[in-house]
Structure formats: structure tokens, C-alpha cells
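Example 690.
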Amino acid sequence: MYVKGVGPARAAMLEAKGLSTVEDLLAYAPFRYEDRTNVKPLAQLAPGEMATTIAEVASVKSSQLRRRTALFEARFQDGSRVGLVGKWFHGDYLKTVLAPGTRVAVYGKIELDSYTGELTVLHPEFEILSADDEGEAAIHLGRIVPIHEAAGKITPRVMRTLLWRICEGLPALEDPLPESIRRELGLPDYGTAFRELHFPKAGEDLRQLNAFRSGAQFRLIFEEFFWLQCGLQLRRSKVRLQAGIAFGLTERVREQIKAMLPFKPTGAQKRVLGEIARDMAAPHPMNRLLQGDVGSGKTLVAAEAAIIAIENGYQAAVLAPTEILAAQHYLYFKNLFHKLGYVAVLLTGSSSAREKGKLKELVARGLAQIAIGTHALLEEDVAFQRLGLAIIDEQHRFGVMQRLRLMEKGITPDILVMTATPIPRTLSLTLYGDLDVSVIDEMPPGRKPVLTRHVSEDRIEMVWTFVKKEIEQGRQAYVVYPVIEESETAALKAAEKMYRHLKEVVFPDLRIGLLHGRMPADDKEEAMAGFKRGDVRILVSTTVIEVGVDVPNASVMVIEQAERFGLAQLHQLRGRVGRGAAQSHCVLVTGRMNDTSRERIRTMVDSNDGFHIAEMDMKLRGPGEFFGTKQSGLPALRIANLPRDTEILNVARERAVAFLENPGNEREKERVLGYLRDHWQKRYGLARVG
Ligand code: ADP
Ligand code: MG
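Predicted structure in complex with magnesium ion:
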């Protein structure tokens, strides 16, 4: 479709926003709507109302208020005796925009300046009207207008015009949604939905529009979730039908598990192991997500599952996102499995080529029962003799594709995905709709909740006094610096500086360790081992310890520049303490904060509940950033938005399940399958269906 007004320059700007087709533009939903039906001449404006008025700039003036605040004022007139003054703080840039004589539509809250007796409007929305607009004035005025995000130099106003033309020229579209569903939910058809998404019909409720709950918006949000859920359901049922390994749960398996267990499993661990064992015994591949807060004992359950596989003559693999975590898991599994006579190997990027070669040989010949590693495990030349169970830790750092890659290393191995980042239940439906979920909702006995405090950085000496007291009682402490991608070097410098300061000035007689991502692997291991043994009393580090370090004697976590960490990361870090019987503490040291960082710190001080924290995190950051869309395999939602649209997600899920399970609609189902095949892969970047 040709769109008038889109030349190469504009096409490039649209492209940069990911808008390359008419379909993309149609799905480019306005982020809010403005009611410009209430267009009044100046003489009819009343103080207190939201109104749109059309007038001409009569004069402008800018004045200096305080040192750096300039006030820009424009006086509007429309030929009547009444004037209106628009005011903008820091508005000097408007000088060139609102020259006298310019005709504008002004929208905002009208107020009466009691001092001058004039009507004023503070920071109004405005749009310049030009003569050649006349034909299109109906788009911008006298109706509810959509406000789209600008794209490059394409202003919301130009965007509106483009979308108007597209909607006007829209041919009759075949509706991809099954008719039965449209009828049951009373949804508008496809074309109407897009038209009314951009240009709501007269009489539509503005509040409802801005809450994204008009009929058109509901339909499009629902539809997006519906396809996603259908795809996930289909994939899930397909996997269920596949032949997999039926592991035997023999007496010997039970005995081996008992022999391995260093302590009595909690009730939650037992229940979850039961769910996993049932899946493993079934003749279909397991696809299960094991969710549980930091320190809830997921790894122990994973080890039990590994025993089931190994005792049946298969191998197990453990995939971890970082070398530190892989090394940690390796030590953990090696310890547990030592008494059972299993051989464990560790494969990471930093092992030498020769070493790697030897380890791969062990795995390929089936001489190692369990292989633990980072991405190195996924390399093509890593072959298992008989992979039966793949365990993936910290799934949110791996995409769906990696999950599949690991799966391909066995015939149809069982998959257990572990995540320590509690995923809000609703979001896990989108992300893991194709997985069954087990939750460990109970901490190992004797754990005391970590006490969290907030301290401003100018009182850091107080923190060191406190740390000293804890260390005198035999405990250990972490001091952590944030690494934000672009500032890794800065974080390293800060950590190194603090390391020297603590070592030379504050705690001259203690052993202090330093750990960061750029150290050679051996030094890293040595620093961790020293801390684990307890000779190193304080470990200063960048966020490399975020996941996986397990030192029960450490009772203090000091997080420097805590305002720069995300909530998920703060919670993960805090989970490094509180693993022993002693009361543990987390100290959040901050510099200057903005509103969001203040909210994050408050959440941390108030709550130890990973689920609550995850929900807050998602609210504060939005789900895309929450997971890092790229690496998470989180489908790119276009019109729908989580958490805003959670309840629509639930409706869509229910409908998708019911639709697919209903035996009486084969024709519709076929159409849905065809549509998914054509659109699913491209839109959501997920694996094949059907
Ligand atoms: P997660 O992987 O969920 O963060 P881990 O499996 O690393 O948690 O367990 C955290 C700590 O709790 C470890 O030191 C582990 O040995 C210990 N632990 C796990 N399960 C139990 C249990 N049932 N009783 C006592 N301690 C446990
Ligand atoms: Mg863990």
C-alpha cells in the first residue's frame, strides 16, 4: 500500500522505530488520547475546565525568574476581547516555534490568574495549524485525537495524518480471529478495531481510552495474547505427545537419593521432587520450570532429579549463565555426588583447549555422569553419550533458543529449568506458557529473614563500625559495587579503591579479598575459596557474586551505590546472606536518589518477599527491561502491555485453551493454525508450531 507523505527520509525515520510495513504502523498504538471535542472560542472558556481553543499568537515574552529558570509566555487572541496567556517554564526554545501570527490549537487546563485577572494555561499542548491543513482539520480537532510517540522528526501530528490516510485507505480485511470467539466476546472486527484504535468514534469514553479498555483496544490486546497463548499451548501439547524417556523410579534410585542428601528436605522440596519424578517417569519429555526464591534449595532438588537420570543409565547436564555460577554448581554437585561415585566435569569458556578436549571426551564416552558449564556446553562439538536430563539454571538469562539447543544434544531429554528470579505469576504465563511450573515456597528451617537498612553514603563510617562488630563475632561480610554495562571500568575502580581503603585504613589486621569479572579464572576461584574457607573475612566485589555464591557464615551484605541497582539484582544480592543460623543484615548505601530509586530502596527495606519484589520491579521498569527482551526470549508485544493488561492475558489464555480443546471446530482450528504458521515465527521469534 502506498502512503502519501512518506518519502525516503520519513521512511528511514519510521524504519528506525521498527515501522517498516503498513501493518507495523497500524499496530503502532497511540500512547494516549486527547479530547478535543470541546473546542471553544476564547470568550466561552471557563476557569477550571479542560478545553481546546483555536487562536493566533498575538505576542510573546520571555523573562528570567530565578538564576536558571526562564519563563516563556505567549498571548493568544481570536478576534474577541478575551485573551489567553500560555506559560512555559524553561520555554525559551518556543521562541522560534510560536512566532506572532501563528495559528494554533491550544489544549489544556484553563485557569484564572487572580493577580492579573487573565485566563491562563500552564504548559498546554498545542499544535500549529497551517493553511494546507484545512482539509484535514477534522483529523486534529473537534474529536478525540490519538497521541502517538514521535519517530525521529515525525511529530505526533504528522504521524496522526499518516495513520488517518492508512485507515481511510484500508481495504476490507479478513479477520484472523475465529468468529466464534469474536461473537462470544462481542469484539469489533479487525479493520474496525484498527480504525478505532487510532481514531476513536465520537462518544467514546476518554478515561476508558486512556486506560486502554475501549472495545477496539480490548480486541487488539486480546488478539495479541490469544495468538501467543495458542502457540504456546500447541507447542506444549506437541511436546506432550512426543516420545520421551520413561525413567524408572526404583528402590535403588530412592536409596541413592537418601545416601546423597546432606539434610532433611523441606516439605516444599519433597512436593516439588514428587512433581518432577512423576514427569520423569512418564514416557514424554518433561518441560518443567522450578521456581523458588534465592536460597530456597532448588539446587538440592535438581541434584535429586539428576540421580534419577543417572541411576537409569543416562547423563545429566547443568547449564549456568556465568562462570562463577557454573564453578559454584560444579563444587556443589561434586561434593554431593562424590559419595555416589559419579564423575562430574566443568566445561567453561576459560578452560584451556587441551583440557576441554579431555573433558569433552569424558562426556562423549559416557564416563562423566554429569557435565556442568556455561554456554560452552552448547557448542557444537560437545556431544553426550546419552543425555537424559538437562537442567538450566537462571533461565531468564537464556533464551528459548538455547533451551532448544540443549534439548537437541539428547534424543528427547527431560528439561528442568530453574529460576531464582521470582517471575510474577502472570508473566510466567507469557514467558513459560509451554512449561509446567513447580514452586518452592518454603525456606530451609532455621533461616531468619535478613534485616535491611538504608544508609546514606556520608555515614559510611557507621557501616564499617557495624561490620567490624559482626566480624569480631566470627562472621564474614560482602561489600558489593554495581556494574552497569557502560560503567564496568568505573565499578572496578571503585571496588579496587574500596578494597585498598578497607585493607589499609579500616581493617588493617584482617584478610580482605577482591573479586571481579576481569580477573583470571584462577584468581577468581582462589578469592572465592578463601572466602569460603573463612580466612578472607571481607569480600569486596563487583556484581559477579550476584548469583550462586553460598557461604552460610557470611552475615552482612553491604551494597554500595545501591540506588544504581535494579530491584531484582538487589534481591539476588541480599539472598547471599541469611543462609546460616545467625541474624543477617543487608545495608543499602546510597548517594543522591531520584523517585524511582527511592521507591526501589523502600521496597527492599520493607519486603523480603521475592514475588512482591518482582511485581514491583516489573511495575517500575516494565517487563521488557525486567528481563532484557533480547536475551530472554520474551515475545515482543506490540499493543498489549504487561502488567497493564494482565487480566486480558488471563482471558486470552482461557479462551485459547478452550478453543483448542473444543473438538467441534476443526475448520476454524485449521485456519488458526495456518495463521499462526504464517505469523507466529516472525512476530514472536519463538519456535515452530504445528
Ligand atoms: P537456591 O539454588 O534455591 O538458591 P540452594 O539450593 O543453593 O538454593 O540452597 C541454599 C542453601 O540452603 C544451601 O546452602 C543448601 O545447602 C541449603 N539447603 C538446601 N536445602 C536445605 C534443607 N532442606 N535444609 C537445610 N539446608 C538446606
Ligand atoms: Mg541457586
